[in-house]
Amino acid sequence: MVKALTGADAVINSTPYQFNLDVMEAALTAGCHYLDLGGLFHMTRRQLELHERFKAAGLLAVLGMGAAPGMTNVMAAHAASEMEEIEEIIITVGGVEFSKSNHPFLPPYSLDTILDEYALEPMVFEDGRFKPRAPMAAETLVEMPWPVGKIKTFLTLHSEVATLPVTYKSKGIKRCHYRLGLPDSFHEHAKFLVQLGFGSNEEIKVGDVLVPPRQMLARLIQLHPEPDSEPNDCEVVRVDVRGKRDDKPAFTRMESIVYSHPEWRVSCGALDTGVPPSIVAQMICLGQIEERGVLPPEQCVPALLFFDELEKRQIPMRKTTQEELSVVAQPQEQHLEMGDLV
Predict the structure, then answer these.
(1) Where are the domains of the chain?
(2) Contact at 8 Å (CB) between 317 and 310?
(3) Structural contact between residues 68 and 237, judged by C-beta atoms closer than 8 angstroms
(4) pTM of the model
């Protein structure tokens, strides 16, 4: 890997998050900047320990630079920059699938990551402390913009919760959650499979053979051919930030409605996961980001420039303040104004 990276300006690590530290070490040895798609909280915290080594080498490692984490961190940073105090940051990502498929269980992204999101204890930040919750905790309906609409969401393990409370500690942040909402049919299947035990990596005996249930599930999925249809889906990426501005209560919602890209023939998830690290890698190489070390996106990515580049690639960004929401007065916003999505 070091040989492959030597001479490169930057590496975008799109492997499963379990390999993040290995790729970071290779990037350090090869002398290139580093970006990845997230470390599912615990790996991210381990990666942050390499900060001084990257800084001493004059390199930047941006941790979690896809859609979520990544876009979500920068969205939170932009909203938080306009507030003197931060009470809470609530992130919700929900999607809907329009394509019809005969495939019984087709993961929209890495199967390992999805199973971990369903099977592992989510970490939340509440009352100024990190706390574990039960897997798939606090399932609830959340109203998202058309065409997603009402969608079941649940608390899940994610990298934003590992870094945002640390970044905004000085602003007094007390609460940070990440909520995931996958298409309803897929969600029910995933929940059933994890409850049955297919989310486990611990080997079980089948006849005379020891098999990890997760590997068995992956192989069974591969036995079904993937549909040869055009991507047709939509995802809403939402970040709600609540705090104080000019000593008055303030609320800002950052939101992006992302569709599949017909020209590139990629799904909405592939688009908003693949585009952000490409943009930020180019920013680093062009000298538009000068920070060095190991940092989360909210600490180093210039928000407005980043949003402009997203817009060029069919990923729009919308900001709505408390005042604008009160004028619109839609029922779903009134529900969310209560400050507790759970």
Answers:
(1) 71-269+302-336
(2) yes
(3) yes
(4) 0.91
